[in-house]
Amino acid sequence: MARTTIEDVAQKAGLSVATVDRVLNGRAAVRPQTVERVERAIRLLNFQPDRLAARLARGRDYHFCFVLPVGNNSFMIEFGEEVRATAKRMVHERVIIDLHLTDVFDAPTLAATLDSIGDIYDGVAVVALDHPRVKEAINGLVDRGVTVVTIVSDVPSSKRSHYAGIDNSSAGRTAATLMGRYLGARKGKVGLIAGSLSLRDHIERRFGFEQVMLHEFPHLMILPVMESRDDWQRVETVTTEMLAAHPDLVGIYNVGAGARGVVAALEKSGRQDTIVYIAHELTDTTRRALVDGTIDVIINQNAGHEIRSAVRVLMAKADKGPLIEAMEKIRIDIFVRDNLP
Amino acid sequence: MARTTIEDVAQKAGLSVATVDRVLNGRAAVRPQTVERVERAIRLLNFQPDRLAARLARGRDYHFCFVLPVGNNSFMIEFGEEVRATAKRMVHERVIIDLHLTDVFDAPTLAATLDSIGDIYDGVAVVALDHPRVKEAINGLVDRGVTVVTIVSDVPSSKRSHYAGIDNSSAGRTAATLMGRYLGARKGKVGLIAGSLSLRDHIERRFGFEQVMLHEFPHLMILPVMESRDDWQRVETVTTEMLAAHPDLVGIYNVGAGARGVVAALEKSGRQDTIVYIAHELTDTTRRALVDGTIDVIINQNAGHEIRSAVRVLMAKADKGPLIEAMEKIRIDIFVRDNLP
DNA sequence: TTTCTTCTGATAGACGCCTGTCAAGAATTG
DNA sequence: CAATTCTTGACAGGCGTCTATCAGAAGAAA
Predict the structure, then answer these.
(1) What SS3 string covers chain A?
(2) Residues A205-253: tens digit of each pLDDT
(3) CA(B11)–C1'(C28) in Å?
(4) pTM of the model
(5) Which nucleotide lies at the shortest CA–C1' distance from B13?
(6) pLDDT tens digit string along B294-306?
(7) In this complex, which of B50, B170, B182 lies closest to A181 when CB atoms are compared?
(8) How far is A233 from chain B (nearest CA, A)?
């Protein structure tokens, strides 16, 4: 039993392959009723064009661009590495991926970047700040026919066609549940450190965390959030102050990057064994601290998965292929010392 | 800049495309020194054959078979569903996947199955029992030129070319760490239930669990392992007895399937809130119990990932393509109520 | 009805590689 | 040295789809 091809479809529909192809690729004007005939034949035969052959024939390259934050935080650096690695692998699949670094924390800069890069690319993946200027820039790209997917941090109200990242409010809830369970009956204060209170992912994590803490573990008191701009030195300062001010601190949840700052402060204070510390993102630093016991749990999003997912989505949109939604859902990884990859 | 093709390679090497192709596919006798010339040209040009074109040209189908256990445990049932779903999706990629159910717990039966299915398939993925007879059957397949990958449970000493599954001793360690941390300072007994003590995955999980428990949480006492054959009714009986015999039971780790048996027993006893229960595999049952709070943590292996990974490996072996090892590593998922997918 | 527009059909030529065949050249044997 | 055997070259044809072109056919407008 051979594959069904467009030829079979054409025959079934009593039309020519040329017409079937026109319908398939929306190339030229075709009468509605003819379109219908073709579509019926396709349905009847359960036909799906062979994407291998299609891509071979098209012979065109896919040009994508990843826009990431500049800066010295390990997660983003490793994220960039991963993008480069993926890019290298995909060259042989006719996919060309450029990497563009910019100041994501600054809305006008990010927006300007997005405005300027548009027309060379078929698709753009961006770590986005949820800000009106940025949203506008994203919508501009979309209007000019560029597919946009957000990664890591979303702008849900924009016209982006997909978000490849974790559900951050669930991530915050997860952190809270583990914090509460690890602390058990112990009482005391829990500190919260965030990179920025205008990054959507940080806001959502905090929201989820506080929601569960207040609801499920009311005996624990949450301290006011400290802002760190994801800079580990500032994180260290902030943590040190927190430790000094609260002798009854029993837990720390670091919503953003700069995990090493907390590690340093904790280890200097000698209280790493009594304080439950939950951090985000698996990097060399956090990994080591987890093994040492300074970090108790790492909540992680798999950079490789997100990138590959983003690329799959961009490619699918580029040639109007189908998407398996379930496969593109990014999971929230929990790492303890023993299930490190 | 166009892609480099075999034509470029041929030119660079001063040979014909036919010869380059012979080298590439080891088809006919080629003098060693000629082979060397071709390989040098390939290296120089960093050439990689276009796999799309190759598969299109070959036009051959890949025939694979998945051998799974019969039985009524949800994990395996869902695993089977997932295989079917993958099969359906892959038909359009020239991959035909058959599903073969057999009694995996019974070594001779499994071995006989493996012996009999060989020659129709290019590759076989099997949930294997680590038993000499089975090992022999796997080796037999390999010797007859069939690629074999093990899934879920491994037979490391066999000639199988890959294992698509989690590291089970790490999984056991993970369970122990979470058990210990959740229990905190509480003292008492911890029960262990396994499907079979001759399934390698169960043995390894138990080993990892006990290792960490003895080492890190010596104040908790591990009860002797109960065997359940992964049948939830037997699990329930066993658990009920355990609950009755040990009023100071504080934790249960169910190494195998049949999680619903524990759930039922716990809920009948009314002690689900005081006992930390850690189970394996996310299914409808365990999911509900996790949300309800009867299960505290689920350790999971992602069936979809394992299956896709197995298929990728089988395909790669079938046409001698390269494998990205890092991508094929299956992670140990930890689920609490809040990070359920 | 005639004259334009729209649609549709037929077909050729890619895309990059595989398979097979046939013949010519090179290396080996006796 | 001739007679074999091994290696290589040169093509032709195909995989399933896309792109482009040109000629008809069908519909709409006059």
Answers:
(1) CCCCCHHHHHHHHCCCHHHHHHHHHCCCCCCHHHHHHHHHHHHHHCCCCCHHHHHHHHCCCEEEEEEEECCCCHHHHHHHHHHHHHHHHHHHHCEEEEEEEECCCCHHHHHHHHHHHHHHCCEEEECCCCCHHHHHHHHHHHHCCCEEEEECCCCCCCCCCEEECCCHHHHHHHHHHHHHHHHCCCCEEEEEEECCCCCHHHHHHHHHHHHHHHHHCCCEEECCCEECCCCHHHHHHHHHHHHHHCCCEEEEEECCCCHHHHHHHHHHHCCCCCCEEEEECCCHHHHHHHHHCCCCEEEECCHHHHHHHHHHHHHHHHCCCCCCHHHHCCCCEEECHHHCC
(2) 999 999 999 999 999 999 999 988 888 899 999 999 999 999 999 999 9
(3) 28
(4) 0.88
(5) D8
(6) 999 999 999 999 9
(7) B182
(8) 30
